Amino acid sequence: MSATRRARARWGATLLALTGLVASLVPLLTLPASAASTVTVFYRPNTSWTTVNIHYAPTGGSWTAVPGVAMDTACTGWRKKTIDLGTATGLQVVFNNGSGTWDNNGGANYALGTGNVTVSGGVKGTGDPCSTASPSPGNSVTVFYQPNASWTTVNVHYAPNGGSWTAVPGVAMDTACTGWRKKTIDLGTATGLQVVFNNGSGTWDNNGGANYALGTGNVTVSGGVKGTGDPCATASPSPSPSASPSALPSPSASLAPSPSPSTPPPATTGTMLGGDPRKDSIYFVMTARFYDGDASNNRGGSQHTKSGNAANNDPMFRGDFSGLIAKLDYIKALGFSAVWITPVVLNRSDYDYHGYHGYDFFRVDARLESPGASYQQLIDTAHAKGLKIYQDVVYNHTSRWGAKGLFTPKVYGVRDTQWSWYYDVPNPSFTYDGLSVEPNSGKSYYTGDLWSTPEPAGNTCRNWGCSPAATAPRATRSTTASGPAPPRACSRATCSTSAGSATGRARTRAAAGCTRTWPTSTPRTRRCSST
Question: pLDDT tier at 137 (50, 70, 90 boundaries)?
Fold first, then answer.
């Protein structure tokens, strides 16, 4: 064997030996897998909360299903939950009482890390507040209130600074001494609170809409004036020189949470949420088709059967504000920060669920509202959850029947064998609102105020009510200035356009220089306004 070949053999043997040595060392050098991160969240809820849920999403992960998972009792005043974060190093957290009241840090959520963390009164911290047998009770306030003498029930509705409001109407106050009620409130780490009072029957004392800002210790509110001390320290405290107002609105919406549907307070005035709209993730909702929260306001309209909705028990107006309120948590859990809703003004046409056939621009469509779920209450509830409402509006056109208070022209009509199904008997005492059923016709889509057989005074359209001898499909005879086609304003007194092609194709007619084109699958006619 040559020297070269012997050298190669020795190098080969050496490499094999090294390979075996490395292979034997690999198990010794393999590092143990890093342990998953965990966090134990300690939360001090409002004292009125009997149930506390934590709704969270690990950094880079998904949110739990609404309303989250129940928290365990830790020690007096505290709840806790240990959460496995996997490889995440933090999480987003919000809390709720399982009944629609949320603490979401003013819409910003709580960003927490790992280990033991605390949230109390809107303030984050670290450590285990239950590590000692007797944790510090935190701050407290005893509120003394001198109500109107007619109030037999007195509730205090409050929110610690940085925290959430109690559920409407608040918590009952105890009798302190003659003329006075009191309530001791645990504030946690908060150093003050916002307070309003009510009699449980819709009458509120909210300091003229500004709420009462109070501190800690013994504080008093009497006749709209704040003070300190214990008015019941002596046997006969002096009465207040003036009683609180007997009828005031509910607390300001910028601070109060959404009211309970079962005990709605008077309507409030909403306050817009701030922020750059370009940074919002917006969820679009066609309200009447989104979610049915109240079946009592469902309405089908004149096309209920023809559209196929009746066969499927699916009236065009089925979704409502009640349903949308019920799904706000769902929308928020999807990651959206705002909801864009279709127009809410009163609509009027044969198929107007979409909101774009505005008839009364000064009235909310009654088919969308319910007790405890008004338009304002939708806004207030969304704001309490940190969600904005973007309102879709259309002002460049109206309904097919014009706009109430602006221009609502009548069409030619007659209750004959051809049109009696469409033209209802006029009822001057009935006002259309989309929801109410006119008693004679049994319809919520009543048309009795939309037509006239006699020619209206000031009419400038020729041949009012005269047939142009055109016959549409199904041998339906059209008539100048008749329905059910909507009358649209025409500036020429001699303009009269009618459709009547049995082929279904569009036909253009001209009269005295006025030209209009109509698709002719249904009999449609044109009449002029008096303008």
Answer: low
pLDDT at position 35 over 60: no
Which tokens belong to 295? 């079946």
C-beta of residue 251 within 8 angstroms of C-beta of residue 169:
no
- Determine the pLDDT at residue 457: 79
Looking at residue 167, the DSSP 8-state letter turns out to be S
Structure tokens at 204: 């509120």
Same domain, 82 and 152: no
Domain boundary, last residue among 368, 391, 414: 391
Name the strand (E) or helix (H) holding 362.
Answer: strand 358-364
Last-in-domain residue among 84, 101, 126: 126
Q: Could you tell me the pTM of the whole model?
A: 0.43
Rg (CA), the chain: 35
Q: Is the pLDDT of residue 477 over 50?
A: no
Q: Structural domain tally of the chain?
A: 3
Looking at the structure, tell me whether residues 82 and 110 fall in a common domain: yes
Q: Does residue 255 surpass a pLDDT of 50?
A: no
- Strands (E) in 136-241, as ranges, are 139-146, 155-160, 171-172, 174-177, 180-188, 193-198, 204-205, 212-214, 217-222, 225-228
Structure tokens, 252: 């300001």
23 lies in a domain? no
Is residue 29 in a domain? no
Q: What is the dihedral of CA 108, 111, 116, 122, to 10 degrees?
A: -20
pLDDT value, residue 55: 93
Structure tokens at 360: 């009364």
Is residue 447 pLDDT above 70, yes or no?
A: yes
Distance between terminal CA atoms of the chain?
Answer: 119
Please list the residues that pair with 188 across neighbouring strands. 139
For residue 326, which of 365, 287, 268 has the smallest C-alpha distance? 287
Structural domain contains residue 501: no
What CATH number corresponds to the domain at position 95? 2.60.40.10
What CATH number did the domain enclosing 332 receive? Answer: 3.30.750
Query: Minimal CA–CA distance to 180: which of 243, 250, 251, 246?
Result: 243
Cβ neighbours of 165 (radius 10 Å): 23
171-172 and 155-160 as β-strands: parallel, antiparallel, unpaired? Answer: antiparallel
Q: Worst-scoring range by mean pLDDT, 4-13, 131-140, 212-221, 392-401? A: 4-13
Listed in sequence order, the residues at least 6 apart from 397 whose beta carbon sits closer than 8 Å to its beta carbon are: none
